[in-house]
Design goal:
The strands form 6 sheets. Strands 1, 2, 3, 4, 5, 6, 17 and 18 form an 8-stranded mixed beta sheet that branches. The chain has an 8-stranded mixed beta sheet with strand order 22-23-25-24-26-27-28-29, with helices on both faces. It contains 25 helices and 29 strands. The protein is globular and about 90 Å long. It is an alpha/beta fold and about 900 residues long. The chain starts with about 40 loop residues before the first strand and ends in a 14-residue tail after the last helix. Helix content is about 30%, strand content about 15%. The protein binds 3-acetylpyridine adenine dinucleotide. 3-acetylpyridine adenine dinucleotide binds near residues 186, 199, 217, 218 and 221.
């Protein structure tokens, strides 16, 4: 056909191709084997006969629920039925990307390769269907058009494109995450008269490109797998690339021997390890940060990952690759170097080098000879960022600068991911509300399993679950098992309706977003963010917290009597309302680590040992940001010299000064303990930070610490200029016991008539010795700072009779009027939360300009944990902004006094 007239291989507009179920496989209307009569009433209707639907059918049937699967395609396989393009294969190793529910299957099925091809995976699924007689309950060639909740009957009414009407108690979408191809969104697409193929709807008979001029649009996984093979066959191949992708050699070959041995030796243990792993594949988790190792060690780790051919290798290289932009950039550059070393033409190599997203934020790929393909004489790359497509023509494609003629065009343009397959069906819940309407601003689910207002509707690997960030088969089995156990329990308790509460769903949506926000994912225009589909809301779709944590969460929900679900039926009605996973993800991870390490209990130790342990905990943590200069010095204190550390910003001075007091319960801590936080404060507030090493109890009991604090502030205010600061511009800040000292110092300065303090930032401050507040009762045992530790601190610091004095408990002051403006930061899971909140409220009541910043999901130690608790970075930014504001206002106030009044305006000129 080269040079000749192309004949269209289609009879309908391209935009409707996605919905033509079997048109391109010759099966439309055919009575495919296994088709079954549709009963008008079943317990469960499952949509989709891929990995999820097949296992759901098996499990539900085993549990004794009458189940029918409705499947648009002509046979089982789901995504592996449709995506038959050349080179299609999995990129999670087949030994992992396979079911675990059938131990015999594990023995009888031998994968021929490390990464099996699409035909082999399809054979596997066919084998599973045969082995368990699944086809007899699958209705092929049948698309579900609508599902409507009938509240009176407490059932779903499902309609298919064959006119079937089925009633079911439970309705399950097992439709996959990447099964709804994107509609071609390129102008003029229907004008093209040549052959058109979609990687996601590939003809069963295959395609022969021999001698043809072929275009491939798209360089995601599908494009990257198919391009090398199409290039081998076609006369000419033109690749239209909008975004270059990160890909590396799969090193496919025989099944990995170590993995095979581990699985064969103890399959149950291997599968259990997968279930409790981060991504659904057993592997160790690195705790090493990227810049903790030398450049050589880093390179060696990157090379090892590259050589491994393991998609998840970099998920495990360094702990901060997914969250730290500078760390991730080192990996990006490593990849670009590889591309430059493979691709002969430097301009093409540069065009193929990803520069607009971080590694992993768009799904990375594994390939076989992808970059090498661009060295072939019959292959060219069109970089759409520089030369965008203007339109399709009858003969081919016109870009801004060129015109191309093709015999065939392959769309590898991806999917409306995760939500697309679900809202493609007209699903209506309570009061006729359409799911698509409910999700206009993005999907809202509880656990990615269910959504409020749509009772008895289950989604397998739905949005808000680990799904596409995991080995899908492991996540599918977990979801199906959870649903199966839930239905089983409901039946036992004679309950027939289940629905998540609005509170639980809102909490989960918040948690999913909070988790994503500490990563680099939201920065990329990826399908994870819905950014590939014009008009789709920009929301991070999967759950990034990991398969292990997610499984634990789902189990916890069950153990807490189906927390967040309302259930009812003839057996009664019940609902344990509430939110699961209220801690921020990184806080949970740190707490788990502390638990694993089995840290000794501080308050059971002699003070010297507790100090040594406290200091030891600071070793190896991230150092905090670079500042212009750090200098240690000594200032005169009331009982002798006090050490201080001065942090100067890199910007030109003079700067205002922030006097900082470290935490540690007046017993622990020194200039090193809050060093990263001081650096962070310095950078964010663009101020000199002077951290003061006040005397500690029990050697120097109350009121030594506050006397030192006040003396230090006075000396620093008087010596501001020699410290590089601007006289008259000074604020105070402190964390925990340091927050107590800062608050007290403000009161002392007010009462002494100076020095002037422009503002106070109190982070989780101790404001009195009250242990009865709700936050103490709720959080007193689990979150690092415990009430027993607080008592230990107080006992070392002050006698009971002294504790209510305002210099120990600033909340007990006669009045808080006349104090500097304040920002009081509290953390939700801190025993001191209500201390801080009470102080903020009392300040405001006394007329002080005081703001309370409550931090959701955080614990006492979160805010100073710079580069460890990333989810507290927002609070740190607010602190920096508040200090700038306080200190900026102090300048304005100073100017208002010192700047001479402006001269009077000259008289306006008289018009001629
Ligand atoms: O789709 P994609 P996919 N004009 O969305 C481009 C899984 N999967 O089918 O990035 C020009 O990744 C688009 O450009 P941009 C896997 O999870 C797994 O390849 O949006 N270009 C992109 O380059 C994977 O991530 C396996 O700027 C347009 C490409 O088309 C997911 O499925 C194999 C365009 C689409 O890439 C999806 O992969 C295959 C336009 N108008 C898939 N619109 C394995 O297991 C889109 N593009 C190995």
């Amino acid at each position: 056909m080269v040079g000749g007239a192309s004949r269209p291989n289609r009879t309908r507009p391209l935009s409707t191709w996605r919905d033509a179920p079997c048109e391109n496989d010759g099966m439309a209307g055919a009575a495919s084997p296994g088709n079954v009569p549709v009963h008008s009433e079943v317990d469960v209707v499952v949509v989709g006969a891929g990995f999820a639907g097949l296992y759901a059918l098996y499990r539900l049937r085993t549990l004794g629920f009458s189940t029918i699967v409705l499947e648009r395609a002509g046979d089982v396989g789901g995504t592996w039925y449709w995506n038959r393009y050349p080179g299609a294969r999995c990129d999670i190793e087949s030994l992992d990307y396979s079911y675990s529910f059938d131990s015999e299957l594990e023995k009888e099925w031998q994968w021929s390769e490390r990464y099996a091809t699409q035909p082999e995976i399809l054979r596997y699924l066919g084998h599973v269907a045969d082995k368990h007689g699944l086809r007899r309950d699958i209705r092929f060639g049948t698309a579900v058009e609508s599902a409507v909740w009938d509240a009176a009957a407490r059932r779903w009414r499902v309609r298919t494109d064959r006119g079937d009407g089925i009633r079911c108690r439970f309705y399950m979408m097992a439709t996959g995450c990447l099964s709804h191809p994107k509609t071609p969104d390129i102008p003029g697409v229907d004008r093209f008269a040549g052959e058109v193929y979609f990687t996601s709807r590939w003809p069963h008979a295959g395609v022969d490109f021999t001698g043809k001029r072929v275009a491939v649009i798209g360089t995601g996984s599908s494009g990257i797998q198919s391009i090398p093979l199409i290039a081998e066959q076609a006369a000419e191949l033109t690749v239209f690339q909008r975004t270059p992708n990160f890909t590396r050699p799969a090193h496919n070959g025989p099944v990995t021997p170590g993995k095979k041995t581990a699985l064969e030796r103890d399959p149950a243990a291997y599968r259990e390890a997968a279930r409790w792993s981060r991504a659904g594949v057993p592997m160790e988790q690195s705790l090493i940060r990227t810049f903790q190792v030398s450049a050589e060690e880093r390179l060696a780790a990157y090379e090892a990952g590259y050589a491994s051919g393991d998609l998840l290798a970099y998920a495990n290289a360094f702990v901060d690759l997914g969250s730290n932009p500078e760390a991730n950039e080192t990996l990006c550059e490593f990849f670009r170097g590889k591309i430059r070393s493979i691709v002969g033409d430097p301009e093409t190599a540069e065009a193929l080098s990803p520069r607009n997203h971080f590694y992993g934020t768009k799904r990375p790929c594994l390939d076989t000879n992808y970059f090498e393909t661009f060295n072939r004489p019959n292959v060219r790359l069109v970089d759409l960022r520089r030369d965008p497509i203007r339109t399709f023509t009858e003969r081919g494609i016109e870009t801004a600068t060129r015109s191309f003629a093709f015999d065939a065009v392959v769309f590898a343009t991806g999917f409306d991911a995760m939500t697309g397959p679900i809202v493609a069906v007209d699903i209506r819940g309570r009061d006729g509300v359409r799911l698509a309407e409910k999700w206009t601003e993005g999907p809202k689910t509880y656990l990615g399993l269910m959504t409020t207002g749509f009772p008895n509707l289950f989604m397998i690997t739905g949005p808000g679950s680990p799904s596409v960030l995991s080995n899908m088969v492991v996540s599918i089995e977990q979801h199906v098992d959870w649903v199966g156990a839930c239905l089983d329990q409901m039946r036992a308790e004679r309950l027939d309706v289940i629905e998540p509460t609005a509170v639980a769903e809102a909490g989960w949506v918040q948690h999913v977003n909070d988790c994503a926000d500490v990563t680099l994912y939201p920065r990329a225009d990826s399908w994870y963010m819905g950014a590939n589909v014009p008009g789709k809301p920009r929301v991070f779709l999967p759950y990034v917290g990991g398969v292990d944590r997610y499984r634990k969460t789902c189990d916890e929900v069950v153990h807490r009597s189906y927390l967040g679900f309302a259930l009812d039926g003839p057996g009664g009605a019940r609902c344990t309302d509430g939110v699961v996973n209220r801690l921020q993800l990184d806080v949970s991870m740190v707490l788990e680590l502390i638990e694993q390490l089995g840290m000794p209990v501080l308050e059971t130790m002699p003070v010297a040992d507790a100090r040594a342990l406290f200091a030891g905990m600071a070793l190896g943590r991230p150092p905090g940001p670079d500042v212009g200069e750090v200098v240690d010095g000594v200032l005169p204190g009331p009982a002798g010299p006090l050490a201080y550390r001065r942090y100067r910003p890199a910007s030109a001075g003079p700067h205002p000064i922030v006097v900082y007091f470290h935490g540690g319960g007046w017993v622990l801590g020194d200039l090193d303990s809050d060093d990263p936080f001081c650096r962070d404060l310095c950078v964010r507030s663009d101020s000199i930070v002077v951290s003061v090493d006040y005397r500690l109890a029990p050697e120097a009991r109350f009121p030594a610490a506050v006397e030192d604090g006040f003396a230090a502030v006075r000396w620093i205010a008087a010596n501001a200029a020699s410290l590089g600061g601007e006289p008259g511009r000074l604020a105070v800040c402190g964390w925990s016991a340091g927050g107590n000292i800062a608050a007290v110092v403000c009161q002392l300065a007010r009462d002494a008539g100076g020095p002037a303090i422009a503002g106070q930032v109190l982070v989780n401050p101790v404001t009195d010795a009250d242990f009865t507040r709700a936050s103490c009762v709720e959080n007193g045992e689990r979150y690092v700072l415990t009430t027993s530790l607080m008592r230990w601190f107080w006992d070392h610091y002050a006698d009971p009779a002294e504790r209510r004095q305002p210099t120990a408990s600033p909340l007990c002051a006669r009045t808080l009027a006349g104090l500097p403006p304040a920002l009081v930061v509290t953390c939700e899971f801190d025993p001191l939360r209500d201390d801080g909140a009470a102080y903020a409220a009392a300040l405001a009541a006394a007329g002080v300009n005081a703001r309370h910043l409550p931090c959701r999901g955080q614990i006492h130690t979160s805010v100073p944990a710079v580069d460890v608790i990333l989810s507290a970075a927002g609070a740190r930014a607010e602190i920096g902004a508040a200090l700038r504001r306080f200190l900026g206002e102090s300048v304005a106030a100073a100017r208002a006094v010192t700047v001479p009044a402006a001269p009077p305006e000259p008289p306006a000129p008289t018009p001629l």
